[in-house]
Specification:
The chain is mostly helical. About 75% of the residues lie in helices and about 5% in strands.
């Protein structure tokens, strides 16, 4: 497959997505009755859309939907895992390129969240009572997820601080031990380190001490 055909298939797939998006937007804003949006409802709607996006891209509940289009790989940082679309190149058949585009869309929480927001808005326009209830439920769950992430961040920060404090404490103990040994041997160089771990280590390395 030539490069221009590869990009043409991707472009056609994206155009198809855009057409469907516009049709749904038109349906929600013109065909159905446009409900009133209060500030509280809009905030809940934002949290609900974010939750839907992350659920589609990452959470186990939609793993069955992602499976034909994506794969789970090790995160580039080395910690945890990430979701990537199944690969395709200029030699791949059209269906694999389309699969890659769908995988790119569904593994992106912002892209998936945009479609989730559109779906919620259309449903709210179609049935305001049920739509509002769904938005508040998903919005509450999204806000709870945010609180959980913040609590996790604080917890990990405290854990890191404890680890650092323990490391510094061990270094200080080692420095005091090395300084005491140096004084025991009567080496003046140890006297000039002031007990600092790095300074003591330099002296130990220079004097080739073995402990």
């Amino acid at each position: 497959m030539k490069p221009n055909r590869y990009h043409a298939v991707r472009f056609a797939t994206l155009i198809s997505f855009a057409i469907v998006f516009e049709l749904l937007s038109f349906t929600g804003s013109h065909v159905f009755r446009s409900p009133d949006w209060t500030p509280l409802l809009f905030i809940a709607f934002a949290f609900a859309s974010s939750l839907v996006g992350r659920a589609l891209a990452y959470l186990t509940i939609f793993e069955w939907l992602r499976f034909p289009f994506t794969k789970v790989v090790k995160h580039s940082s080395g910690a945890g895992e990430d979701v990537h679309s199944l690969p395709a190149d200029i030699k791949s058949p059209a269906w694999k390129i389309i699969r890659q585009v769908v995988g790119d869309w569904i593994s992106c929480p912002i892209c998936a969240g945009t479609w989730g927001a559109l779906g919620l808005a259309v449903f709210y326009s179609f049935d305001p009572s049920m739509g509002k209830f769904l938005i508040y439920v998903l919005g509450g769950a999204g806000f709870a997820m945010l609180i959980s992430r913040l609590a996790e961040l604080i917890e990990w920060s405290c854990h890191a601080a404890h680890e650092m404090a323990g490391k510094l404490n061990r270094q200080n103990k080692d420095a005091r031990l090395f300084l005491a040994i140096g004084r025991e041997f009567g080496n003046d160089e140890f006297e000039n380190t002031d007990g600092d771990f790095e300074n003591v280590s330099v002296v130990i390395e220079r004097q080739n001490y073995e402990f």
